[in-house]
Automatic annotation (TrEMBL):
It holds the Pfam family dCMP_cyt_deam_1. Zn(2+) binds at H65, C90, C93. This is Cytidine deaminase. Transmembrane segments: none annotated. Belongs to the cytidine and deoxycytidylate deaminase family. GO terms for cellular component: cytoplasm. PROSITE patterns: CYT_DCMP_DEAMINASES_1 (PS00903), CYT_DCMP_DEAMINASES_2 (PS51747). It comes from the Bacteria. GO terms for biological process: nucleotide biosynthetic process; pyrimidine nucleotide metabolic process. The active site is at E67. GO terms for molecular function: dCMP deaminase activity; zinc ion binding. Keywords: Hydrolase, Metal-binding, Nucleotide biosynthesis, Zinc. The keyword DNA repair does not apply.
């Protein structure tokens, strides 16, 4: 989860930084991801705005979530793997997690617990018998020393 937290710090989203790490049965890291625009899309040309009337000018249609990025980056069979994610997955990521064959989710933040997308996530995970466990929050600090 420490690596997931560190991955989240790479996100340029000013409101919600999320990181995900996929590990195999030996707890070896297979891949990491964080929320951001798809490859080749400039962070300066697309919006990070999260509220307003004009859907096309919000971040939502464009942002690829941390779980999606970690799963796509893995480029290998993830059957039986676990995912560590800093925020409980939305319904779209939950579908991708299930289809990838991941069988356990560890998360920290559950701030959207009562929102419909996250209720749908739990409904799918329960039906698919994929466990999800909340871990205590942790704070990491990375200091970069310039020469
Ligand atoms: Zn998601």
């Amino acid at each position: 989860m420490t690596v997931a937290k560190a991955s989240a710090m790479r996100s340029k989203d000013p409101s919600t930084q999320v990181g995900a790490v996929i590990v195999n049965k030996l707890n070896q890291i297979i891949s990491t991801g964080y929320n951001g625009f798809p490859r080749g899309i400039n962070d300066d040309e697309f919006p990070w705005i999260n509220s307003g009337e004009d859907w096309g000018n919000l971040k939502y249609p464009y942002v690829a979530h941390a779980e999606l990025n970690a799963i796509v980056s893995a480029r290998t069979d993830l059957t039986g793997c676990d995912v560590y994610v800093t925020l409980f997955p939305c319904n779209e990521c939950t579908k991708i997690i299930i289809q990838a064959g991941i069988n356990r989710i560890y998360f920290i933040d559950d701030k959207y617990h009562n929102e419909k997308e996250f209720i749908a996530s739990r409904k799918m995970l329960d039906a698919a018998k994929i466990s999800y466990d909340q871990l205590p929050n942790l704070e990491i600090t990375i200091k970069v020393k310039q020469k």
